[in-house]
Fold this sequence. Notes:
With 62 residues, this protein is mainly alpha-helical. 56% of the residues lie in helices and 0% in strands. It contains three helices and no strands. Helix 1 (4-13) crosses helix 3.
Amino acid sequence: MLDSQEIVAAAILSAPGWVKVGITAPDAKMRVQAAETLAAHLAEYAGEPLPKQDRNQLPLPL
Length: 62
């Protein structure tokens, strides 16, 4: 069984790429938009079951 830290980590990693980059942007407006989108993603993710990942499958970036 996964603990809450693993669930949060999985949710963050499944967030859109621009959000993960956007929270470090020098532009304050972009950081706020990224943070709001990340918060919405985490709230949505909390109600969904974790996806099963095959350890034998190499994940490829999009």
